Amino acid sequence: MTPWLSIVGLGEDGLEGLTPTARVLFDQAEVLIGGRRVFAMVPEDGRERLTWPSPLSALVEEIVARRGQRVCVLATGDPLHDGIGATLANRVPIEEITIVPAPSAYALACARLGWNRAEVETLTLHGRPLELVHPSVQPGAKLLLLSNGAETPAEVAALLCARGYGPSRMVVFEHMGGPRERRHEGAAEDWNAQGDTQAIADFNTVAVDCVAAPGAALLPRSPGLPDDAFRHDGQMTKREVRAITLAALAPVPGQLLWDVGAGAGSVAIEWLRADPRCRAIAIEREPDRIALIAGNAGALGVPGLEIVAGTAPAALHGLAPPDAVFLGGGVRSANVFEAAWSALKPGGRLVANAVTLEGAAALANWYGELGGEYGGELLRIAISHAGPVGGASVLRPRLPVTQLRLAKT
Hints:
Number of domains: 3
CATH architecture of the largest domain: 3-Layer(aba) Sandwich
Number of strands: 19
Strand content: 15-25%
Oligomer: single chain
CATH topology of the largest domain: Rossmann fold
CATH superfamily of the largest domain: Vaccinia Virus protein VP39
Order of helices and strands: EHEHEHEHEHEEHEEEHEHEHEEHEHEEEE
Strand order of the largest sheet: 13-12-11-14-15-19-16
Largest sheet: 7 strands, mixed
CATH class of the largest domain: Alpha Beta
Shape: globular
């Protein structure tokens, strides 16, 4: 089918910055679609205009219904980089679309800073929680953040200071590529003391060159965060066992984890931190622990963690089928195991941990029933930590953990 839908990236220089191809698509369109800021740069010419609502879904469906008309969507910068292009490409066959991008805010900011785009982490905060920045804050990291508004730079500065990254250099770009372009810069720890930062435009991009102050906590994305990175009541998979558990669960981008009996949510949270495309559901019955999970998820940069309040197996009913399951609680209940195993997708992984003899016996029984057919492993994890005794040191063992691993074929 001949393309009827065009998606054209528009920069701060407006129509003058369009390529000849993009200009033809714009000129020939019967219907124009865009945001208020974009339409402010396009002179009124009598053609039908539709402005993006919030949420976008209703207008997306209307666009699809206009197949056969020449529709031009005016986007900001690169429509396929945190833009509307990907949303529309999921609803309309790509053979029916022509996409002409303009330079993205990320590309423009890198050009002004001399940053290697391949070494920069990008993130949009437009309509999204500020906490998403947390996993990206690492020593030496370079970040480019699309702001939600004029207040975003100050919020980013406060987050950096709270994490011990006050010396980080921040540069805020306004209206890049147009006549109103400006920049503000300074250290995060001094940011809110600079009077001119109070007049930042709503449309801005924040660049951060992360510098950790002495003593800043190191919170890498690799499994095994320190136990004190989480608020908990003692019911939590401890650091070394957690790292081993996550290695067995094998987080894969786009896959879904069920963390059953989540406690403080540490396994689900570290699963999500492995890649921003990972998904997880934490199932927990205790209200106090549910509050801990929510707080930990926000503080560690994964506010999208879904929390289900309830007791398994009933709480598992109706949930999206998982690619991986962690049983940190309820391992003595055959009903919980059977419900989780039945829901697990083919190719999925189930990992269950137990500390008590009764729990270990249950894992041994499941291993005996399923281990041979599904390439299962049953192992004992024993960790010891050094501590003082008189004038010497000894290794004090923690309670050993029995772990069952199964892969569903």
